[in-house]
């Protein structure tokens, strides 16, 4: 599902809201999650999952085209861990 599909579906389920308002709400939620992660905070949505930031240490990598060793700097990467309810929903048919 893309962001525009999410906005369209939410607008469809909430006919009392204008689509531009739904778009503003969705954009604000995504911005707040991104801002929290950039501050190093953890974002937890009960039943859905938790977003956090993990640090990757610097390392030696390889250029896949030439095979030459290259230095890869340390970096922060987003991490998502699913919540219990979401895992149960995804595995309900097993």
From TrEMBL:
Signal peptide: none
Keywords: DNA recombination, DNA-binding, Transcription, Transcription regulation, Translation regulation
Classification via InterPro entries: Hist_DNA-bd, Histone-like_DNA-bd_CS, IHF-like_DNA-bd_dom_sf, IHF_beta
TM segment ranges: none
Entry's Gene Ontology molecular function annotations: DNA binding; structural constituent of chromatin
One GO CC term, this protein: chromosome
GO biological process, one term: regulation of translation
Source organism, top-level taxon: Bacteria
Function (record text): This protein is one of the two subunits of integration host factor, a specific DNA-binding protein that functions in genetic recombination as well as in transcriptional and translational control.
Family: Belongs to the bacterial histone-like protein family.
Oligomeric and partner information: Heterodimer of an alpha and a beta chain.
Protein name (database record): Integration host factor subunit beta
Lineage of the species this protein comes from: Bacteria, Pseudomonadati, Pseudomonadota, Alphaproteobacteria, Rhodospirillales
